[in-house]
Amino acid sequence: MSILNHQIDVSFEKQVEWWKAVIDSINDGILVIDQEGSVQLINPEYTRITGVTSDILGKPLREYRPGAQLPDTLEDRKCRVGVYRKTRDREYLVDMAPIIVNDKVIGAVSVCKSLTEVHRLSQELKKQNEKLKQLERKMDSMYEAKYTFDQIIGKEAGLKGVVTVAKKVADSSLPILITGESGTGKELFSQAIHNESSRNGRPFIPVNCAAIPAELLESELFGYGEGAFTGAKKGGKAGLFEMANYGTLFLDEIGDMSYDLQAKLLRVLQEKKIRRVGETIDRDIDVRVIAATHRDLQHLVHKNRFREDLFYRLNVIRLQVPSLRERREDIPRLIDSFLQSAYSTYTIEEQTLKFLYTYEWPGNVRELKNVIDYATCIAEGTEITLHDLPESMIKQGAELFQQQPNRSLQGVMEDTERRLIQETINYFGTGIEDKKKAAKSLGISLATLYNKIKKYNIGS
Ligand SMILES: Nc1ncnc2c1ncn2[C@@H]1O[C@H](COP(=O)(O)OP(=O)(O)OP(=O)(O)O)[C@@H](O)[C@H]1O
C-alpha cells in the first residue's frame, strides 16, 4: 500500500525517507522492535529522553535493557500505558503496544514522554504560585485597616461621644457619614469602625474621591467590562466595590464626587448590586460604605451640587469629629503619644506647650503630628522649644499668642478644665446619676467633680 498521494508515483526509497522524516519530527520518543525483539527504529527524541543511542539498532532490546517490558507485548499482545521509568538523571513515562498486521504480531512500538521537563515546569509553577501568594499577602496588607478605637487618643467629651456612637454602630451594615475638618481623624475613625465590626479581616479600601479624575472614578469604583473603552484591559477589570466585597469601602472627600456618579452610588447603596461600566449584568456585593467629608454637605445640597437623596441615605448615621480647637485639652496627650511613638527621650518646654495650646490648628491632628515630627528633627537637645517649631507656624500663631501675653500655662489649663467639665455635664446631664457618669468619664471621683463645679462656678 502506498503511503503517499496515490496520484504521485514515488519510489520505495522515497517513501522510507518520508516516513523516517515523519518519525524524527515527532515530539515523543519512539522505539520499534521487530517480532524477534530486535530494535528496528529509534528517533532522536527517544535518545534525548532516555539516553539510548542509535548503537542499539539491529540488536535485541533485552540485551541492552534487561528490564524492558516491550518484548512482553510481542507475547501477550497487551498494550501498556503510562509505565514510569526513572534512571539516575532522567524520568519518563512509556506507552507500549504490539504492531499487529493480519492478526499477526510483527513487532512492538514504545512511545515515551519526558517527565524531566514536566518536573521543571511544575517547579516553575510552584515558584510562580509562591510569588502570587506573596503579592496577594502584600495586597491584603495594603487593604488592611491599622487603627482600632484604642488608638484614638482623646478624652474630650465630644470626641468620646463620637467614639461611643461609632462603637455602637460599627457592626451594622448601614452607611456612615463622618464629617469634620481636614486632619481630625476621619479615616482613623473609619478604620477603627471596620476593625470593630465583623468585617475585620476583610478588605478595608480607602478611596479619595477628590484625587481621582471624575471620568475615571466610575470605572475605578465599579470596574469595567471587556471593550468598554479604548485601552480597556482584555477580560475587563473588577472595581474597588468588588475588591472590597464583605469588607468596607471608605469614600473620602465624598463631597467632591460628581453629581452623576452620586446617583450611581445611591443605587449601589439601595440595591447592593454593582454594574461594571459597559456591561448590562448586575453583580451582587456586600460592602459597608463609610463616607467622609470636610465640606458642609447640606450646603452643597442647597447649591444642587450634592444629591439630596444620597445625603439623606448617608446621613442616617452621622459622626461629627471635633476639630482640635474644640478639644485643646487633648493636645498634651496627643503630643505625648507622638513623642513616645518614635522619640521617647524628648520632652517639651512649658512655653512651647502653651503656644501649641493657643495655636489655631487649621490642619488639626495631622498638623500637630507633623509639627512634632519636624520639631524632633530640628531640636538640638532633647527638649523641644519654640525655636524648633516651623517658622510659618510661629508667624501664624504669634499674633494670637501675643494677644494674651499675660496668660500663664496654669490659666490655660484651668480654662480647658472648666470647659471640659462643662461639656461633660452638658453631655451626660445634671442629675446625680449623670454626674456619676460624668465623673467616671473624666477619670475623677464624684467628690472631685463637685469640688471643681464649685471652683469654676459651673452651672448645673
Ligand atoms: N484622635 C487621634 N489620635 C491619634 N492620632 C490621630 C487622631 N486623629 C487624627 N490622628 C492622626 O492624624 C492624622 C490624620 O488623620 P486622618 O487621616 O484620619 O484625618 P482625616 O480627617 O481623614 O483627614 P482628611 O480630611 O485630610 O482626609 C493621621 O496621622 C492620624 O493618625
Tell me how many strands there are. Answer: 16
Q: How would you sum up the global shape?
A: elongated
Rg is: 39 Å
State the helical fraction: 40-55%
Continuous helix count = 19
Largest sheet properties? 5 strands, antiparallel
Give the terminus-to-terminus CA distance.
116 Å
Taking strands numbered 1, 2, ... along the chain, how are they ordered across the largest sheet? 2-1-5-4-3
CATH architecture of the largest domain: 3-Layer(aba) Sandwich
The average pLDDT score comes to 89
Number of domains: 4
Structural category is alpha/beta
CATH evolutionary superfamily of the largest domain: P-loop containing nucleotide triphosphate hydrolases
CATH fold naming of the largest domain: Rossmann fold
Task: Assess the beta-strand content as a share of residues.
Answer: 15-25%
Q: Which regions have little confidence, pLDDT < 50, spanning 5+ residues?
A: 1-5
Bound molecules: adenosine-5'-triphosphate
- CATH class of the largest domain, please? Alpha Beta
Organism: Peribacillus asahii
Coiled coil: 115-145
InterPro entries: AAA+_ATPase, AAA_lid_NorR, Homeodomain-like_sf, HTH_Fis, P-loop_NTPase, PAS, PAS-like_dom_sf, Sigma_54_int
Domain PAS: 15-55
